[in-house]
Amino acid sequence: MNNRIINILRQGKPEEKVKIQGWVRTKRELKEFTFIEVSDGSSLANLQVILNQDLPDYNNVIKKLSTGASLAVEGVLVESPAKGQKIELHAQTITIYGECDGKDYPLQKKRHSLEFLRTIAHLRGRTNTLGAVMRVRNACAQAVHQFFQEKGFLWVHTPIITASDCEGAGELFTVTNFNLDNIPRNDQGKTDYTEDFFGKKAYLTVSGQLEAEIMAMSFENVYTFGPTFRAENSNTSRHLAEFWMIEPEMAFCDLEGDQNLAQEFLKYVFKYVLDHCPEDMEFFNLRINNTVLANAENIINNEFARITYTEAINLLEKCDRTFQFPVEWGIDLQSEHERYLAEEYFKKPVIVTNYPKDIKAFYMRLNEDQKTVAAMDILAPNIGEIIGGSQREERYDILESRIKEMNIDPQELWWYLDLRRYGTVPHAGFGLGFERLVQFMTGIDNIRDVIPFPRTPMNAEF
Ligand code: ATP
Ligand code: MG
Ligand code: MG
Ligand code: MG
């Protein structure tokens, strides 16, 4: 049988011979024998291993098996008399790969704060919480691909180094081929970064959307799932400088179809994770936030709320809350507004549509009122925005004048405009921050705790 602990715990039968490998989580020495719990990261539950006195070199082996030590155990499964587990492993041979000095080991046998664990990101995967996060994250990623593949979407790989600033928000990291010795300088000796990538401009991508649109104009339905970068000098609990984004783009689709797909997608991913990681989800409900399971059921079973931006502003103006950032038509919704709507007013995700054109990117389709665009944001309880999407402007003349209005040089987007000259079609899409999805699913407050290697201005270890 497969030697991962999760499979042994689920399917192992008494008298089966198995070999496992992993790390000691706890050790309990009794007179006659010793119990150790071993984890290999495959499941929340550890496998209990019993070491008897008759094991070769018993005393020496026991001494070396402190928390954190790595080992292989070969032995026979036996029925467990202990509550809560069916099976345990009777050790016949033990191989120790690496000892672990119990006094030094940062992961002591107690509950550590997530803040502390961030300082030891190289070891925190061995804790229950980060272990559960990484398994749920993996299941989410699997669900993302399965959802789109079942629907016949093509997974497209958009560039990470790109020439376009898709969002126009000035949050770009510049890519350069200079080393410290050959940074070009102007006449005054100041650094001159105007042409950085072998004489051309290049940035780390902030979104694969524009390139995904290109692909949708040949393949109808496509999606991206890859890393994105934003020079966010903000230290909020929902912003990273490097995060993963999922961006479907659909030809022959309008804003309504876009909202429907986003809702169906979120329901699918929640259901998939509940089905595949039930123990981890229960753990989050018990230890992190006691609304995790109710929230998942709520997502799966209910329609999301849908309102326009103008209705959202009316609701916010009428409510009895005072916000730090004053509410009036035309503002970009702040996280306090978004959270009020999702958490307190609707108590479920809410899709807000038709935002003022001045606060949104140039590519969103202009509505007939000439003031708003066919945008949609999905706001989630505890987080705020998790999805931003829109129907794209497919009309050449209007797109060109919007580009000029935003002071972008149409020359830079000649290929984007070209797509509107040669067989343009209505199309729409959205972007979902993968870490925000994992946050939403697990109830974890801080985005730094749902990505293996968080990069923010404060966290730059890796
Ligand atoms: P916010 O208002 O929170 O700054 P945004 O409107 O700037 O987000 P978009 O440009 O709409 O973000 O990007 C699409 C999605 O990508 C967002 O809905 C969010 O889920 C995610 N996202 C954006 N910026 C970040 C970030 N810095 N870290 C993690 N996820 C992000
Ligand atoms: Mg932003
Ligand atoms: Mg936003
Ligand atoms: Mg947005």
UniProtKB/TrEMBL annotation:
One of its GO terms (biological process) is asparaginyl-tRNA aminoacylation. Keywords: Aminoacyl-tRNA synthetase, ATP-binding, Cytoplasm, Ligase, Nucleotide-binding, Protein biosynthesis. Belongs to the class-II aminoacyl-tRNA synthetase family. Its EC number is 6.1.1.22. It comes from Cyanobacterium stanieri (strain ATCC 29140 / PCC 7202). It comes from the Bacteria. CDD domains: AsxRS_core, EcAsnRS_like_N. The lineage of its organism: Bacteria, Bacillati, Cyanobacteriota, Cyanophyceae, Oscillatoriophycideae. GO terms for molecular function: asparagine-tRNA ligase activity; ATP binding; nucleic acid binding. Its main location: cytoplasm. This is Asparagine--tRNA ligase. The keyword Transferase does not apply. SUPFAM superfamilies: Class II aaRS and biotin synthetases, Nucleic acid-binding proteins. Residues 134-452 form the Aminoacyl-transfer RNA synthetases class-II family profile domain. It catalyses: tRNA(Asn) + L-asparagine + ATP = L-asparaginyl-tRNA(Asn) + AMP + diphosphate + H(+). Signal peptide: none annotated. One of its GO terms (cellular component) is cytoplasm. Homodimer.
